[in-house]
Amino acid sequence: MEPESLYNLLQAPGKVDPPAAETLAQGEKRKYLPPTSRKDPRFEELQKALMEWINTELLPEHIVVRSLEEDMFDGLILHHLFQKLAGLKLNVEEIALTSASQRRKLTVVLEAANKSLQVQESQAKWSVESIFNKDLLATLHLLVALAKRFQPSLPLPANVQVEVITMESTKSGLKSEKSVEQLTECR
Q1: Least CB-packed of 16, 55, 73, 112 within 10 Å?
Q2: pTM score over 0.70
């Protein structure tokens, strides 16, 4: 296998295909990134810039992020990153092994981050549920907000937009809608 294709295989997202009807409860909405959005060069550049930033910040702690979806969901890396950036000590267990303790940890970290970012939970483009479910879009929104707040000079690519498919389960079946979501500002 060529190194490039191996790299792409390792970067392949866990969830690409829109869900089957049975995975969405009636009235539930979920956002999905189609493969074309995931492969957009500016989108990939943003992910790379954020991973390099996190890895640089957490280098003294020997923490390495390889995937924003897989490595951020349980709150461990967000916990270390937020404490380093904000200079705060959060009262939460260091290692969370169970799903319930990971959610608790993520809840504490996101509450502190939202407070620091001065974002109401209802206005945030991320939530405990979305981050815990490895929602890359929500994770990116959170990381971009943290970078803007704590490291405004970080050179993130400008005007990164992605096409998003929103799926909703209704009484009459699945409804989908395409939209464009802005991840970084125009400069």
Answers
A1: 16
A2: yes
